[in-house]
Amino acid sequence: MPDVVEHRAGVPVLVCDPDGPLVATMQDALDLIGAAFLGAEVVAVPAERLDERFFSLGTQFAGEIMQKFVNYRLRLVVIGDISRHLTASAALRALVHESNRADHVWFVPDLDALDARLRATA
After folding, report:
1. 82 contacts 52 by C-beta, under 8 angstroms
2. pTM, 2 dp
């Protein structure tokens, strides 16, 4: 399945294919942002599409990507099981907790959880 814009809970979401290209550079993230400009407000990226550096906060890769999405007024949602990363990093646990309390970046286990969050914010 290619990356596709779907209406989920009434919100246009670019749902990224789990088998799509790895997001390993800032240009890769900008490509997703560009694809979202076809009508999406939210970009849902499977965790397995994110380079390992995203989950290692010392690299600053996650912060740079998250800031780009905020700058372009798009919500970034990381979808999937990131428990092994959370176990390894207290800083990442704190980031996920704080992000999920806000509105710009969310970490959710699956698309059903994304739908529930979108309905709750409508």
Report:
1. no
2. 0.95
